[in-house]
Specification:
Largest sheet: 5 strands, parallel
Helix content: 40-55%
CATH architecture: 3-Layer(aba) Sandwich
Structural class: alpha/beta
Number of domains: 1
CATH topology: Rossmann fold
Low-confidence stretches: none
Radius of gyration: 16 Å
Shape: globular
CATH superfamily: P-loop containing nucleotide triphosphate hydrolases
Mean pLDDT: 90
CATH class: Alpha Beta
Strand order of the largest sheet: 2-7-1-8-9
Strand content: 15-25%
């Protein structure tokens, strides 16, 4: 039996990585899951996400040689999920991946059985988190908030939603419950 691909998405600052990291210890035991690492064209020590850093040239080499199951560009960076995920799924392991809201339709074309999960957060909470990170100007944060509102409204109705505006443990519990339903 094949594993299920869970496509996690949400605004930058919504807490996707926090929810995934919080759930990480329980995933293998309770949901037969592992988390796919992302290949990203940014420094390994940038941000809180555990990712594999690639130069632009390395990313293009992997892309041109078919080594990504999925790949997209966002915020001036390139992101990829390796084809090793297909081996994990074929072995019956469920896989969680951190994806892009704008790439969802393409991801669903690539894997029609994927389960889309949107980590949501209210705008005030998102504003506070983005300001606390200190990576962007106030104008850039406002643009992110506008995009967050637009994309949240445009998601298909079959997307599963988890609210991460409050206690992280609540969002983690929601994720674990959702994973056991599939």
């Amino acid at each position: 039996m094949s594993g299920k691909l869970f496509y996690i998405m949400g605004a930058s600052g919504a807490g996707k990585d926090s929810v995934l990291n919080s759930a990480r210890a329980a995933l293998a035991d309770t949901a037969n899951c592992c988390i796919a690492h992302r290949y990203i064209t940014r420094a390994a020590d940038a941000g809180a996400e555990n990712h594999l850093a690639l130069s632009d040239a390395e990313f293009e080499f992997r892309k041109s040689n078919g080594l990504f199951k999925m790949h997209w560009a966002a915020n001036g960076l390139q992101y990829g999920i390796g084809i090793e995920v297909d081996q994990w799924l074929a072995a019956g392991v469920n896989v969680l991946m951190n994806g892009s809201r704008a790439y969802l339709a393409t991801a669903q074309d690539i894997d029609v059985s994927l389960v889309a999960i949107y980590i949501d957060v209210d705008s005030d909470c998102l504003r506070q988190r983005l300001m606390a990170r200190g990576r962007e100007s106030e104008a850039e944060i406002e643009q992110r908030l506008i995009r967050h509102a637009q994309l949240a409204k445009s998601l298909p109705g079959d997307v599963n939603r988890i609210d991460n505006s409050g206690d992280l443990n609540v969002a983690c519990t929601q994720l674990m419950t959702l994973l056991t339903e599939f």
